[in-house]
Design goal:
The protein is mainly alpha-helical. It is about 60% helix and about 0% strand. The protein has eight helices and no strands.
């Protein structure tokens, strides 16, 4: 939770403190956005996890696999709060899309409105924060990598600047962790209160 709060707050402050895109952020955006076109089909599919419809599909799959109403509800609440929370942050910050600041952006999909914070990144990291502690250790890096691919894909698509996805990731981590806590799923130093998670090894407490 602390890590998510720091990412969100630091990137937010940095964005509102400047009217232009920092040179380092611009260079990083260009390096990613200029990658070859064959990358697009690779990142497009996982990137849909961060969409509103895609997140609902993921929540349904979590319910089917885990058979835990708490984990499913936590994922649903986290993804929805992350999605709509990102829109609320966008209205407060007012940062535009990359094409408003950088010339010759490769726009691989239409993205209107404001840029900071990335809703797709927020949803992906919120879902990851909810499910990762309830997964076997060997699968945990896979989920984080998928969330990272979503954030990477938003930059590659020309929809977001790097700090947009950092802010989105921070928001998602914060929301996802709080959602786990709210539904009694545990976390660092907190016990798990969900007897339905009998088939999913949980890192912070033995399965019941």
């Amino acid at each position: 939770m602390l890590g998510g709060a720091v990412l969100l707050a630091a990137s937010w402050i940095f964005v509102v403190a400047r009217d232009t895109v920092p040179l380092g952020e611009e260079r990083l955006f260009i390096d990613i956005n200029d990658l070859p076109g064959f990358v697009w089909p690779i990142v497009w599919v996982p990137m849909q996890i961060g969409s509103l419809v895609g997140s609902l599909v993921v929540v349904a799959l979590i319910g089917i696999v885990s058979r835990s109403w708490r984990l499913t509800a936590a994922a649903l609440v986290a993804s929805q709060v992350a999605w709509w929370g990102a829109k609320w942050v966008k209205g407060l910050v007012g940062r535009g899309r990359p094409s408003e600041y950088i010339a010759n952006v490769h726009l691989r999909e239409h993205a209107g409105g404001l840029g900071y914070a990335s809703g797709h990144s927020a949803v992906a990291f919120a879902l990851a924060a909810v499910v990762v502690p309830s997964l076997p250790r060997r699968w945990q890096p896979v989920v984080w990598i998928i969330a990272g691919v979503v954030a990477f894909g938003r930059i590659y698509a020309g929809a977001h600047l790097p700090l947009d996805v950092v802010g989105g990731a921070g928001l998602g981590l914060l929301v996802g962790t709080l959602s786990r806590w709210a539904f009694g799923l545990g976390g660092e130093g907190l016990p798990v209160h969900d007897p339905e998670l009998h088939d999913i090894p949980v890192r912070d407490a033995p399965a019941t």
